[in-house]
Amino acid sequence: MNIKVRYFASMRDRMGRAEDTVSIDGDTITVADLWKKAAGGQELPASTLIAVNMEYTDGAHAVKNGDEVAFFPPVTGG
Amino acid sequence: MAVQTHIKVIVQEEALDPCQATDDYQTSDVATGKYGGVVTFVGTMRDFNDGHQVSEMFLDYYPGMTERHIEKVCEEAAEKWEVMNILVIHRHGAIRPSDPIVLVAVWSAHRANAFDACRFVINYLKERAPFWKRETTPQGQRWVEHNTKDPAAEAAANNAVSIRRTA
Predict the structure, then answer these.
(1) Cα torsion for A11, A16, A19, A21, to the nearest 10°?
(2) CA angle A21-A24-A25, nearest 5°?
(3) CA separation (Å) from A36 to A24, A58, B159?
(4) Least Cα separation, residue B69 to chain A (angstroms)
(5) pLDDT per position as a tens digit, B139-150
(6) pLDDT for A14-36, tens place per residue?
(7) What is the pTM of this model?
(8) CA-CA distance, A14 to A17, in Å (whole number)?
(9) A42 in reach of chain B (CB within 8 A)
(10) CB contact under 8 A, A73 and B130
(11) What per-residue string of b and e applies to A31-54 under the rule 16 or more CB within 10 Å gives b?
(12) Which of A13, A70, A74 is closest, CB to CB, to B62?
């Protein structure tokens, strides 16, 4: 299955790209494991926020085919 | 809620003319003769933050998620206070000092509800809406890591909490 992963603000700069499409064997993966695959072993910065399908969640969330996952730093408001 | 509240949220890169936008929306979307007032808040960009001169700001956002979360907080405001219309327009992209960044406009039959709903929505926007600021200072560009608190807004929020606690 394919998962779209998006990065915003300083996370986009850190990754050097705005998004990835990550191919996974099997039909589910946790967000934490997805991060490891996308980031090539880089640690997830402690303050990182996670959204799946545009709703906040955490690293234990099980992602399924077609989901959109986003990693970004704490929001600073408008 | 007693009245159906109409909510419109726009996040745009184009310059914002808050007076024109309020006027246009009022003409096209707000029921003529039913509102007793409109409360507007316009946020503009300062040229200083955390003791640094800021010559330009870049606002990043998450298209889709940002709008959805602002809509939700408008819906929350509409449940708390009887208001007719809420319009939010927020900029993203490159912003210069004195540029309007955000407009919150609330129409209601009576002023108190419009004031309270407007304050509620802008406080959310300033503190928790999914936006990220990158400032250009004499030292270079930097991502802002936390929002700047408005001391008066904080005091008002704390006061509201203690009022609810003692009520």
Answers:
(1) -120
(2) 155
(3) 12, 14, 44
(4) 9
(5) 999 999 876 666
(6) 999 999 999 999 889 999 999 99
(7) 0.88
(8) 8
(9) no
(10) no
(11) beebbeebbeeeeeeeebbbbbeb
(12) A70
Residue B151's pLDDT is what?
Answer: 59
A13 part of contact set with chain B, CB < 8 Å: yes
- Nearest Cα of chain A lies from the Cα of B77 at a distance, in angstroms, of 18
From first CA to last CA, the distance across chain B in angstroms is: 23
What's the burial of B150, exposed, middle or buried (CB within 10 Å: 0-12/13-18/19+)?
A: middle
pLDDT at A41: 83
Residue B106: C-alpha distances to residues A58, B42, B115, B127, B160 (Å): 34, 12, 8, 19, 21
Q: How far is B108 from chain A (nearest CA, A)?
A: 25
Distance CA B24, CA A23 (A): 47
